[in-house]
User: Fold this.
Amino acid sequence: MKRMRRKCKTLLLAVLLLIAGVIIGEVNVSAAEKEITIDSISVKQDSFNGLWQLKFADANYTDAITKISVNDTDWEAYSFTPSMGGKYRIRDGAVEFAQKSYSQTAALKNGDVILITATGYKTLAFKVAIADGKLIISQDTKPGDNMKLYVRLVGSFESALVNQKGYDAISGASTNVTQNKNSDASVEVALVNADQKPTKDDWKLLSESDIRIKSKESSVIIVNHDDASKGNDSGMAGVYSVHDGSLTLAGTPANAGTYDISVSITDEDGHTATSNSLPFRVFSGEETLKDQLVLSNCTKTADGKYMYDMEPWAIKNFTDASGDQRVTVPADVKAWYGSHTSGTYGELGYAVSEGTAQKQTLILPKGCNLTLVNMDILSSVKIIVGDGAKLTLRDSVIQGVVEVQNGGTFSMNYNDYGEGEFLNGASINGQLILQDGATLENAKIYSNTNNIANGSSARHNTEPVVVVNGNVSLKGKVFVRGDEAPTGTDAATGKSYTGQRGLKVNGTLTLEKDAVLAVFGGGKDATTSNGGTAVELNGGTITGEGKLICVGGDGHFGEGGNAVSGTGMISVANAYLEGGASVSKSSTPGKALGDNVKLAGTTNRNLIDGENVNDIDYDNDTYWRDILTVPNLSLYPVDANAPGETTEPEKPGETTEPEKPGETTEPEKPGEATEPEKPGETTEPEKPSSGEIDSNTGKDKENKTKTTVKIKVKSKKNASVKTGDSSKPILWAVLMLIAIAGITRILLLRKKN
Assistant:
């Protein structure tokens, strides 16, 4: 019995030990720390809130997190959306970090090592790599990355002159708004693996990249190229814009010389890089065009020609003081740039008094096809376009004279590549002179001579914008407009100045087949009292198979300008001639033809004398007002109506358009209304016409019949039509009243009886 009890106790003890072992084992298992693997972590990007979101396959993990450190620095658990480095947020089973920092504390960056401590879990350590807008994690725990930073400067700096003010005139430093910008340089960066070189696609503007630089450890470096020991003695400082990645220069150039400009940057990851250098030249202002305009200072292009970027940007001296002030452009120079920024001009020459002959001459030799871009040619300069040469103006201003000689060609504001198109920006404030044998082709010519000062002096210029001497050819489409009248009284007339004349012909101007010449006298604005003449013939002739359009300037307080004045002949295929209006009842509007201008009988014509108007109908006006476009040629219709005889109109307001021979107009019957089909046209019985018109009477010289007169009215009002039978309605009304009275009396008598 005792033995049995002893066996039972032994058995019980064994069971208890077994149970205890199981329990202890379970406790030990439960007490073991769990492990989060790298491949169980997913990364999402919340672009709207600017967050990196790390999610874990173990849904309980984020609740157990007690601490997160980045590069051995503890970050703060945050209850709001993190917008800076040093903070994180746990929300919806994810750990969230800011993608970018809006404070001095950096957000997560490439090469950061993150350690996460959580209760019941092994410490989680991993490294982040950020590239191309993506965050990738790895098991690497060594801080830093294997990336290399590159930086470069692209573009250029325009040269400057000693004591030049406002080189890059910055009007708003915080936004880099500029009024005058001569710098065209930008900072570009690339971040690639250390064992690789940047490709074309790797380079980005610093302002558009994800790289954040440390401003205190980054700088713009300016060094004297010829003597590095002088450091930066240029007087200029570099200004980098975080908004557009541009690098500009501020200050006043102090010393002539060449300076190397570069940048050195350090990003928040500790990468450093130094860029290439761009040259910046400061000139004394005493340089000569003869020394500067040489092929060694030009850039050769693929076609074997050259481009000249004028340096310095202002050259006043052609040669030294003792030399002949004549310089010839190398024949192989095809383009001459004052700058590469529209509205920023290079300057050649200097201002001379109005009416003073040009003292400096720039010659284009045979074979030179030169385009001037962004240049201001001052009034001391005459440009001669020689035989076999061509000059084209783009975004450039002529303050002096351009003289095109025999065999030379001139064009402006026109792109002759491809299908061709008219451009804007070039003007002639001086004068274009076309000598015998010259050619004018595809040009939009307008003047601002009285609105832009000649140096510091206002002009009083009414001389023609374009002058033709000898036999000159015109090709394509050419548009010419004179400027508004200068301020003051013309000593020659004792009246207010007229608007500037458009064209003067001393010789013969031939319009080639399908060519169009449209000329407008000055008189667009109310500042012009007396409108300018469009074309003045000085014993000259305009002929050829093209179309001539002439519109005189409007006189806003005085006389309108003539379409064509002077003495000479018009014998083109088609002519639209319109005198300028006068916004004054006491003044004289302009004529289509001056008294001594003949119009060939072979010319189809539309002759319109100006009128006295209350105001200008700008919506229906034929004046070329907007120089940003070309005139709408549909506004200038001309019928096939050449009379066959030369006409010499003398009376204002009357044109000569005889009816076809054999056509008559029967008189209307008495009491019938006559309504002309066209405004301003009257009909009278006619005999067969000889086609020869008396300029004094407007009647056929042989049969004495009056021709049709067409008058265009710039400001139109509806006129009532008088029919001639206004008495009939009154008669019928009286008879009706008598009848009604009679009927009423009869009815009353019947009722009484």
Notes: The longest strand covers residues 535-551.
